[in-house]
Amino acid sequence: MSSDPYVYPGTTILKNIPGIRNQKTLDRFEADRVGQRSLELIENPLSGLFDVVHLQRIHRYLFQDVYEWAGHFRTVDIAKGKSFFAHVPYIPSTLEGLFARLSEEQHPRGVSQEAFAHRAAEILGTLNAVHPFREGNGRTQREFVREFAHKNGYWVDWSKVSRNELYKASDVSFMRG
């Protein structure tokens, strides 16, 4: 089994800027800092082209206080339970394909709410299957979609969706492809 360069040796705790070595303490620190950064993005969304760079900038902004590697794609393969995410070499090309389709559509302003919801679900599903970052994929995906919706005249309020519903939807989307 290869070692994970993102964790402190002999642990499963991700290396982090403040050097926290207790998982519960790190979880609280991360939730606090990322929560604050999320609120900032609601007030001042990052401008961008809804492309790979934009996705990386969102991750960097959200996790800048927590991880040195914030905004960089992972360099190791990862899985959650029995779900394996995109192999590292396929991350850039898969995302480029998704964002090329978005670019071709020139942002679907004016489409029905249902059509937009389907588009947003495709974005979320693809980003979830790829899981380009070592940590923080869900929060980055949700912020990306929130900004994409806002840019297209819609409002997404993730607080109306329970964590359990989000995980369930992610699992379903992952299994259906």
Structural account:
The protein is mostly helical and 177 residues long. The protein has one domain: Fic-like fold, CATH 1.10.3290. It has 6 helices and 2 strands, in the order ααββαααα. The chain has a two-stranded antiparallel sheet with strand order 1-2. Strand 1 and strand 2 form a beta hairpin. Helix 3 packs antiparallel against helix 4 and helix 4 packs antiparallel against helix 5. The radius of gyration is 16 Å and the shape is globular. 21% of the residues are buried. The mean pLDDT is 90.
Low-confidence stretches: none
Name given to the CATH architecture: Orthogonal Bundle
Assembly state = single chain
Mean of residue pLDDT values: 90
Amino- and carboxy-terminal Cα gap: 28 Å
Beta content: under 5%
Helix-strand string = HHEEHHHH
User: What's the tally of helices?
Assistant: 6
Spatial extent as radius of gyration: 16 Å
Q: What fraction, in percent, of the residue positions are helical?
A: 40-55%
Describe the structure using short key phrases:
single chain; Fic-like fold; two-stranded antiparallel ribbon; 54% helix; globular; 177 residues; 6 helices; mainly alpha
Please sum up the structure shown.
This protein is an all-alpha fold and 177 residues long. It is 54% helix and 2% strand.
Q: How is the topology of this model organized?
A:
Layout: H1 23-43, H2 52-63, E1 79-80, E2 83-84, H3 91-105, H4 113-130, H5 137-151, H6 163-176
Antiparallel strand pairs: 1-2
